[in-house]
Amino acid sequence: MLKASYRIPSLPPASIVESAVVLKAAAKAHRHLAELKGRAASIPNQAILIDSLALQEAKASSEIENIITTQDELFQAGLFLDGPGSGAAKEVANYRDALKRGFDILHQNGGLLTNNAIVEMFQVLKRTDEGFRATPGTALKNDRTGALVYVPPQDRDAIQAHMTALERFINDDDQSDLDPLVKMAIIHHQFESIHPFSDGNGRIGRIINVLYLTRSGLLDIPILYLSRYITSNKGDYYRLLQAVRDTGAWEPWLLYMLEAVSSTAQQTLQLIEGMRALMADYKRRLREHASIRYSQDLLNNLFRHPYTRIEFLQTELGVTRQTAAKHLDQLAAAGFVEKQQLGRNNYYINTPLVALFLRIAEPG
């Protein structure tokens, strides 16, 4: 049996120090998060942000694990669940579903982020009925060289005990006086070091990040586009994760995660501001167009589903299939959406919105 190469610390770790530089970085991240939270509240239908931004976060988080898909594949996978779509796109869609499921459970549990919820998110992500690892033999290796990097806990009872302690730390707001963003960084490191699942630990760990921000009240909904920063700085991410295990170098890890929050809060704010401007433009133009019957539900549909289809409009507007098809064809003729065909099915693209996603997703 493999021997664990790092002693999982009790929580909070005794060696954690909120130095002046850490607290300064945390204050900066809090300011940007507060601005993001306020601007997000100005979008009239929060489901638009949850659906649209969760998919962008899912795409970026999956890319960290070398699961690469295009925006087109990603949106198409959401159109026709039983139809074509790359395996990568479906994995990304599973991440989005796991994030949304976790957020729903958080509300149902009164703000508690439990191990049962974490296991359920994993099961949605991987489409499995597995739980925490029960079989020894897991080891993390360098993708390029194959060299052994880290051996997490191997014993099933030890994994369960560490996850029970982590659950308590996540949900007990009186257990320490740590800044919540510092606490988030500790939670993430602890989860990745326990490595409780057979696969998907990185993605579940990143979902826990944004759900923790919502349970802490720093965000109302899970919209922080956090994985984009990690994707762009992946080498540092893995290096600093391991440095804590090897040398106890907590401060560089904390600063990395605080900068990730600060940077991606600003980028997500740009995305929301872009969406607000596009929605205002569409609203004005739709109201001015003589042949199109404007409604807020119609506008919401075009921004909740960058790739929409007749059935989506039919359900969300409560109209017949014929009426929904007529609306979409009128929108296409007027230049609001671009009509495409996939097999025997038509779908309609909000091309300015997709272009906004692509622009924000470009490396900064």
Write the layout of secondary structure elements.
Blueprint: H1 20-40, H2 46-64, H3 71-79, H4 87-108, H5 115-126, E1 140-141, E2 148-150, H6 156-171, H7 180-194, H8 201-215, H9 227-232, H10 234-247, H11 250-288, H12 296-304, E3 307-308, H13 310-317, H14 321-333, E4 338-342, E5 345-349, H15 351-361
Antiparallel strand pairs: 1-2, 3-5, 4-5
Helix pairs in contact: 1-11, 2-4, 2-12, 3-4, 4-5, 4-8, 6-7, 7-8, 7-11, 10-11, 11-15, 13-14
Silhouette: elongated
CATH architecture classification name of the largest domain? Orthogonal Bundle
Helix fraction? 55-70%
- Output the radius of gyration: 22 Å
Counting DSSP H or I runs of 4 or more residues, the number of helices is 15
- Give the strand line-up of the largest sheet: 3-5-4
Number of domains: 2
Please describe what this structure looks like.
The chain is mainly α and 364 residues long. The chain folds into 2 domains: 33-271, Fic-like fold (Orthogonal Bundle); 290-361, Winged helix-like DNA-binding domain superfamily/Winged helix DNA-binding domain (Arc Repressor Mutant, subunit A, Orthogonal Bundle). 63% of the residues lie in helices and 5% in strands. It is built from 15 helices and 5 strands. It has helices at residues 20-40, 46-64, 71-79, 87-108, 115-126, 156-171, 180-194, 201-215, 227-232, 234-247, 250-288, 296-304, 310-317, 321-333, 351-361; strands spanning 140-141, 148-150, 307-308, 338-342, 345-349. A 3-stranded antiparallel β-sheet has the order 3-5-4. Strands 1-2 form a two-stranded antiparallel ribbon. A hairpin with a 6-residue loop joins strand 1 and strand 2. The longest helix has 39 residues, at 250-288. It is elongated. The termini are far apart. The relative contact order is 0.15.
